Give the backbone structure.
Amino acid sequence: MPLDVKEQHIAVFGESGSGKTVLVSSFFGPTTEPASSNDLWDLIADNPGQGARLTQNYLGMKNSSKTPQATRFMATTYSFTVRLKGGQNSQPYQGLRLGWHDYPGEWFHEEPSSEEEGKRRIETFRSLLGSDVAFLLVDGQKLLDNKGEEERYLKALVRNFRQGMLHLQDDILQDKGPLTRFPRIWIVALSKADLFPEWNVHDFHDLVMEKAGEDLAMFLETLKPMVSAPEALSVGEDFMLLSSAKFELSSAGPEPVDIDVRNQVGLDLILPVAFMLPLERIAQWMEQTQIPMTVLRAFAAGAGGFANLLTDNRQLVESLLSMIPRVGSLAARAAVPAIIDAALLVDDRLKEMNAQAREAQNNLAATLTQFKIDLERGRAQGLLRRRT
């Protein structure tokens, strides 16, 4: 019998050399080592060949200080399953699946070499549209190379993202008009954050907003015509620090002389961000915004099921999606407090629910509450800045 899973997707955008391949390799690679095991779940690569390549990349960094070979002009989708260990058989999902969509950095600043490549770019971008969360990577090395002139690099980076979207806009929309399924949370993430050991995420946020805040605002305006209910769209409101390892570089060339894969920053927050941040955001939008029914149903597809597991008011949200069509253009008002309660759980109540789930061997609820705890930890440690 196939594993019953709940899926979430992320899209990762970054220019060539920004560390996307290193990032996904360092995300998955350590999970194959016994020391990384936890009591709730295992991370499985759904494609064994992809899993083997990512593990090889990781071990090359760990044992030989060798970075993975660059993947130019390759669009790759990785699929990982968070397979729950033991626990109850009656829980609604026996696993969680993460779709990780990697968009080629070269496509943001180079024209298609042929009509066929142009079509492939459009189809690749369409494959990203089921994601709730997108990462815009800022290359820490390029930021360091432009020290004192960060504005030049950051403005060029955001403008390349914007131009890439403008080039695709007409082909993506065609005659269908604004899209319901679309990444609605765009996180600005600093890759290679190990190059800035004195920084926290607020330092990064302040630099980006000072040097390229207007460009991010223009990027948001570019996205708005592409998406229905553009008021339910976050760009430049969430920031992260990410480092796949600590790289010791040689003065003689670009190749590292040592890579310490034990020194990671923020990678353990990727699963919590993918699965729990959309739940938080939909709670905020349901409170503040009149979201059309079609948009709410699409975005709530992931969040609604999780809310059932994270609230005491389960009867109110027994099936969020089944309630929405019966109440017109908005979600049932009765369901809203339960969703909000689930999304905004913090501190003692959150830890209490996590402990209760672990005691009851409800590993799905324990995993999701742990993800929520991890988000709060990331905020407290200065690694994650979320919209408030």
Remarks:
- Residues 308-339 have pLDDT under 50 and may be disordered.
